[in-house]
# Entry
Amino acid sequence: MEVSLSGVTQRFGAVTALDDVGFRAGRGAIHALVGENGAGKTTLMRVLFGALQPNAGTIELDGKPVHFRNSADAINAGIGMVSQHYSVIPELTCLQNLMLGAEPGWLLSESKAKSRATELAGRMGYSFNWGDSAEGLSPAGKQKLEILKLLWRDAKVMILDEPTAMLSPADSEALYSSLASLAAGGATVIVVTHRLPEVMDHCQTVHVLRGGRNVANSLVAETGSRELAEMIVGHDIDERAVEQSTVGDVLAGVNGVTLKGYRGDDAVEDATFVLRAGEIVGLAGVDGNGQRELFQALLGRQRLSRGSIMFSGEDWTETGPRERIERGLRLIPEDRHLEGVIDEWSLEENAALGLQRLPPFARGLWVDSAGRRDAASRIADRFKTKHGGLRQKMSSLSGGNQQRYVAARALEVAPKLLLAFQPTRGLDIDGTAQVYGAIRQACQQGACALVVSFDLDELLEHCDRVLTIFHGRVQEPPAGLERDRQAIGRMMVGTG
Amino acid sequence: MIDPTLLAASTITLGAPLVLAALGGLTSERSGVMNIGLEGAMLGAACATFVVGMQTQNPWLGLAAALAAAILLMLLHAVLTQAFAIDQIISGMAINAIAAGGTSFLGKAMLDETSLLRAPFLPTQTYWCVAALAVATLAFYLRWTRGGVHLLAVGNDPDKSRQMGLDPVKVRYLALVATGLLCGLSGALICSNSGSFRDNMTAGRGFIALAALIIGGWRPLPTLAACLGFGLIEALQLHLQGTQLAGAAVPTEFWTSLPYLVTLVAMAGLLGKNRAPAGLGKP
# Structure
């Protein structure tokens, strides 16, 4: 089915998310929709999926104008969308999830459904235990189930929002080969992404949005990766060299730290490393190897089974988060919704979160509202968070803009020890460069930083030193191999 | 010694209203709407069934009034929480307050001068059969029908459900009508058990039903078992009043507080182990 959107304008209150945007996608191809955070990619796709009613604009399918009042209308017209966080409901079985909203009758006949499900899965080369709860599915499993849901509903237009955000590189490759076979079968596949290599390798056309406007629309074969990146950010991207800080004295020391995991076994074993003033240290490892527990211990939220933590000459082993924050501990948390912000509070109130006892947020026992307002506007300006006013709720910001705000907050008030867990999660090229630039700047003023990331390339590009963590053991690469991607990669999986 | 048949009969008598109310709570909470207003719906139904039954001398009209009153109160809960996005606990408290005040007023206004009149009731066994049937129907409905799966899905994650083309608000309105229906039956049964309407006659049974729902993990059959468990404790409590424990006289207050104590212990022991519907309380 051929999709065509034209003149789409979507406003949220005072913010214009989409301004007179057009988009076209023909059948039998994979189309990429790219742009920075907040460029309006997801908004545009939600309009196509009927989840938003635009202020202006038309949607045409195969040349015929259509009007969707809700997603149910769009689904009936043959449009399917897989959102970034998937819409698999954990409490239902895989089969119930597959059929959800498109059950053949009021009474569920599982045997008949199962045979069609198995047939669809076989066509894609997947296999599922249909009676199992969907809760245990891995991200890759959920993604596969989502694709089968599209097939179950006989979707002709398939929209996938950041489909590889939670997948490993191998699973991403497998996903694109599934998508290619769907496109070969005549489907119109639209992929929203900010990973340019995926666009270059797997997509046929690319459509660029910037700041809610159309920027470009071309065949992938006729464009280059660099040219595309410049269209996305709207200016030249400087090739940055890693600027090394002058490394000073040891600021933080972790000595023989052993930590219990939530299952009762040792999540971190005998970790010993130091952070020197002025340096950014990366902690590379596959998710779930003890990074979280180590972070909790550094924050003062988890007791050590053995070992000690020192900071700038003081013993921190028994101090709590409050004292550590007063001494200059700052956090960019892994899950901002859980640990970083309160969605229903304003940007201004969120600015003080965690720092509420320190100036400029507090004056003695009192809240310093003027100081907080100023700080909030500095925080918002630092990484150019796009917002509709500092009194708006945090939840009114797009994910990437929330991340910018949280990262800027950690850097605002005299950081001494910066702990960052995936600080660029959901950020685009520009945002990533800005965040690391600011961390670097804080370190040049005498702070030190520990950055956890699952992306080794990102760490190698921005950190002075990279440690690895595997099965709770922290290791430093041997001399001479400090920046060796292969060697560190092997250490990350325990074969170094 | 306690007569086992007598104990079984009083267990069912005392347990049946809990079963009906807890199932009402189940449809509501499984759709994601927290409902502490069960108590109010039951009280409203008990009052309505008595007043209308007394005036018309028709047990069926009395029952119809009970259902209508409870459904109206639960629809009010639905409108407050879904259309006006009022906090679900606060809305539930409002329902309870309206029911307590309204029935007290109605009771005083209508029952004083005509207190010699009695209302006719359907035999309580009818309600027992309906309760048993409701458990089986609901267990089947949740597992094997489209509507049941939609109810679970909406209660689990309204946003994702909307994305799959479901209409969470519609599902919740329907779920609350079912809640009203079941609480109406429960209220009517409580009233017919005692033969007349008294102020605040539900006496916290809506909350005990909620506790049973939580102990039953929001699943029909375990919830039935929990309700009968509460019925049994209540029955034991009645039989044990005035008896001695290990040779010492036990004050009546101890026995009357027993069901509430058990509720507390059971909730403390099970809370966190049973999983609430993930979308509970989400708008």
Observations:
- The first strand of chain B starts at residue 244 and ends at 245.
- The CA atoms of residues 67 and 181 of chain B lie 5 Å apart.
- The two ends of chain B are 52 Å apart (CA to CA).
